[in-house]
């Protein structure tokens, strides 16, 4: 028995160091790839969220058009213009928009300014709460004041608009980069700042093209 125990050899220090070096090299290759895959998956989720919110923006607009009085002259573009800004409820100037929030409701001038005929709800109010999308980088619901553009963070969604040469307003969702130092450091060629260029806008997610 003692003879058998003497024949059992342990790992030498050199062998252990070799194994650790190989493991370190594997981790150096695998971890960045895994991080990149997760990073890309997060942005894929944001694009999907932007598409969904765009559909809800259309639904909200249709409901408001259907609720108009005969004397009202609003069109779809008038309503979509009140959705320009961050989904947290503010535009780039800190003014309220109609994605989310409380307080005075933004009402287009083409609609009667009466208590019986005004925009009395926001996009968040027509969506089931269990369907509220979340920023995959932060976990915050997009309909939340934390995502209203007052603080730089990855994945902020901003509904931007630019008018083209034919006079149509083009609405796209832009979103911020993972290393954003401001709320308008857009991701993947969308540019920086506001208003965006058309080239940058078209790297975002298309929402609508409407006649003013």
Give the low-pLDDT segments: none
User: Roughly how many Å is the radius of gyration?
Assistant: 26 Å
Share of helix, binned: 25-40%
Which structural class is indicated by helix and strand composition?
A: alpha+beta
Number of helices: 5
Report, as a whole number of angstroms, the end-to-end distance.
Answer: 93 Å
Could you give a short account of the major beta sheet? 4 strands, antiparallel
The whole-number mean of residue pLDDT values reads 88
**Beta fraction:** 5-15%
Order of helices and strands: HHHEHEEHE
Could you provide a short overview of the structure?
The chain is 35% helix and 10% strand. It has 212 residues and is an alpha+beta fold.
Describe this structure in words.
The chain is of the alpha+beta class and 212 residues long. It has 5 helices and 4 strands, in the order αααβαββαβ. It has helices spanning 2-7, 13-66, 76-81, 123-126, 198-201; strands spanning 85-86, 157-163, 169-175, 205-210. Strands 1-2-3-4 form a 4-stranded antiparallel beta sheet. It is elongated and about 95 Å long. The protein starts with a helix and ends with a strand.
């Amino acid at each position: 028995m003692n003879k058998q125990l003497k024949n059992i050899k342990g790992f030498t220090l050199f062998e252990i160091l070799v194994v650790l070096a190989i493991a370190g090299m594997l981790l150096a290759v695998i971890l960045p790839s895994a991080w990149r895959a997760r990073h890309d998956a997060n942005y894929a989720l944001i694009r999907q969220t932007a598409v969904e919110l765009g559909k809800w923006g259309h639904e909200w607009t249709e409901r408001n058009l259907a609720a108009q009085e005969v004397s009202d002259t609003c069109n779809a573009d008038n309503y979509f213009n009140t959705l320009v800004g961050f989904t947290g409820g503010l535009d780039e100037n800190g003014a309220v928009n109609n994605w989310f929030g409380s307080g005075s409701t933004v009402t287009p001038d083409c609609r009667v300014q009466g208590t019986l005929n005004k925009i009395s709800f926001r996009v968040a109010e027509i969506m089931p709460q269990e369907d509220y999308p979340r920023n995959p980088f932060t976990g915050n619901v997009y309909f939340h004041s934390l995502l209203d553009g007052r603080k730089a963070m990855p994945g902020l969604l901003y509904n931007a608009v630019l008018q083209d040469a034919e006079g149509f307003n083009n609405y796209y969702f832009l979103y911020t980069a993972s290393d954003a130092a401001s709320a308008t450091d857009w991701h993947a060629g969308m540019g920086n700042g506001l208003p965006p260029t058309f080239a940058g806008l078209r790297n975002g997610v298309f929402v609508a093209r409407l006649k003013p």
